Structures are given as C-alpha cells and as structure tokens.
Amino acid sequence: MHITHQASGTCHTSRRGDVRCLPYRRPERGSMAFPRPSKPPLVPTTPTPTTTPSRTSSNRPPDPSRRKLTAAVVALMVFAPMAASCARDGTEGSGPVTILANWFPQAELGGYFHAAEQKPAEGSEERPIKVLPGGPGIQTIPQVAAGKAVFGVATGADDLLVARREGLPIVAVFAPFRANITCLTAHASSGVKGFADLDGRKVARVQSRPWWEYLKRHYKLDRVQEINYTGSLAAFKKDKGLVQQCYVTSEPFYLKRDGVPVTTLSISDQGGYAAYSNVLFTTEQTIKRDPELVKSVVERVARGWEAFRADPAVGKQAIVAANKDTDPGVVDFAAQVMRSGRWVSSPPGAMTEAQWLKIRDQVAEAGLVPGSTDVKGAFTTQFLPTQ
Fold this sequence. Notes:
The protein is of the alpha/beta class. The chain folds into 2 domains: about 25-180 and about 275-365, 3-Layer(aba) Sandwich (D-Maltodextrin-Binding Protein, domain 2), CATH 3.40.190.10; about 180-265, D-Maltodextrin-Binding Protein, domain 2. About 35% of the residues lie in helices and about 15% in strands. It is built from 12 helices and 11 strands. The protein has helices at about 70-90, 110-115, 140-145, 155-165, 210-220, 235-240, 250-255, 285-290, 290-310, 315-320, 330-340, 355-365; strands spanning about 95-100, 130, 150-155, 170-175, 180-185, 200-205, 225-230, 240-245, 260-265, 275-285, 345-350. It has a 6-stranded mixed sheet with strand order 2-1-3-10-4-11, sandwiched between helices. Strands 7-6-8-5-9 form a 5-stranded mixed sheet, with helices on one face. Helix 2 packs across helix 9, helix 2 (about 110-115) packs across helix 10 (about 315-320) and helix 4 (about 155-165) packs across helix 12. The protein is globular and about 60 Å long. The chain starts with about 70 loop residues before the first helix and ends in a 22-residue tail after the last helix.
C-alpha cells in the first residue's frame, strides 16, 4: 500500500481536515488559514502542541483560526501557478494518484484505504491510488486547491460550501456517507435526551464548526458553556456533566469497551443536519483537464467502500498497519454501523441537488454563507458508477 506522511506550510488542522468556519456577518474574526507562498517543508511548521494528539480515532486536535476572506483569495492567486504545476505532476504520467486524508488512518476512511490496496490490472491504464494520511499540520481543502494532492477528503460537505464562498474552486465528486456521522455524547445519567437539553451545559466541541453553529442557532443554545475539544475521552470519562462531540463509528465503541454508559445524539438523525461526511473532492481544474482520471478514481473508490462495508478485512489490515494506535475492533464496529444502511450513500457516493440545497440553507442559517449561494458548482455526479 502506498502511504506517506505529508505536511506543508503553516497550516494545521483538526483530526478531519476541517476548515474553521466563522460567522458570515462578522468577517473580522478571521478567515481560512493558508500556507505561506514558499516551498513546502517536509514537516509542519506549526508550533508543537503541548500534548501530541494520539493517532486513534478518539483523539483529535482543535481547529486553527483562519485569516480574512481577502487573504484566502489572495493566497489562491499566489498559489495558482504552483497549483497548476503540482496538479499536472499528480494527474499526468504513470505515478500514483494521491488522496489527502483528513486524519490519521482510521475506520471512517476505510473505503479509501481499501481502494488503495487494489492494484490496477496488468496492462490496465489505471494508476494506483495512494492515500496520504492527515494529522496535525494537514488541511485538506486549501492543500488540494494549492496542488499538494489531486484529491482530498473533506470532513463535511458544509466545509466545501464555506471554502467555495472564500474563492476555492473545489468540487465534491463522491460522498460515502449520506448522513453526517458526527454526534454529541453525554453520560447516561446526565438527563440529556435531545439537543434542547444542552442549553446551560458544558459542551466540548471543535470551535466554530458549521454543524455546531447551526445547532446553537436552531435550538437557541444561548447559555451553553463551550469548551475546546481536546481530542481525548479522558476528561469526558471524569466529568459526568460534560457533553462531547464524537463519531457514531468510533467513540461509542471505546466508551462501551471501557464500561461508560452514554446517550448519543446524532446531529443527522435527531438534529436534522444534512451535510454529507468524509466527502471526496478535487479541483475544477483537475475535472476539466483529466476527467478520465477522476472517473477512474471515483469508480474504484466506490468499489472500495462497497467492499469495506461488506468485509472490512482488507481495509482494516491497511489501517492497523499504518496506524499502530488503532484498536482493530473499532474498524469492525464501524463497518457494522455502516452495514445498517442508515449512514451510507446508496448507490455508493450518491449526492442530490435537493440535499445540497438543504445543506446550503442550514449553513446559511448558521451565518456562514449567503442564503443565495449556488450549489450546482459545488458537486458533480457525472463520475459516479452507473447502476
């Protein structure tokens, strides 16, 4: 399997490559963080955190702050020549096609790793897929826009809308999860039964995520006490009054394993939040220049996700080999959750304009994009396998 670590510039990010979102009506609070226009170093140049985040799926660092909207546009203009050159290196020739993941190897990326394990048939013009693991210092959306990888994984479709509003020409091409797999977890003894119960409570969340901004406004959580999400379950286990964000495919497994009874609130099921999760995206330029490559990758990724859901053995072996901190049991647990059918897209990768419009409306309600935002350029289904 082709797996390497990659980092660049001064970017650093949360576990899932999140783009930190700031209120649309208050741009003075900052905008997207971009790497400096210089040759990328071999290691992240962001300050070393006091506590190094674990590579397990239950440990994720918080998002960084973002610069002004104008800085995002200027940075894109500065990077345009470099992006074209880097993208050509990644889309032309016989080398591997790169997918930049939004965190360390984990179950929520299983289909991508399974696809990377499948070697092209002898004599085939298909090129191998190489997954570049994410982590601290990796921010998938601006890095793919700058040509550091051909494809990337965005934590949510909502992030892509915010990024396009800031001038980044990126396009979703495949959505493995039709529903958002983010949840909020509370202790079973806390009395939390729904999102309205969060008002006045302490919630650990990644700062300014679109889904959280939406929930606060939609459920009028004016008295909630927000604290930074550290990426660890340690504080949650000790504090019976703490509510913490999680993935339905990961933290419930670890908490059950450790004997911690919890109540889990799905931002999709109970919260009605529509954003697709772990979306595969690329640039408008790549789609225009090499549509056959995009089609080839999307079709293989679709097969990878189908195979992973049916039998995670291949993906699990690749994930555990690349991330020694992963409990193999969590990969099996995630695949079992996916087999329930309520989270995964059917057919694989499917996206609809109706759902994208709902995502747009919710992100607009959160104050992060205008309500008139056009979603048609944000995604395409032209490369999805025909059923």
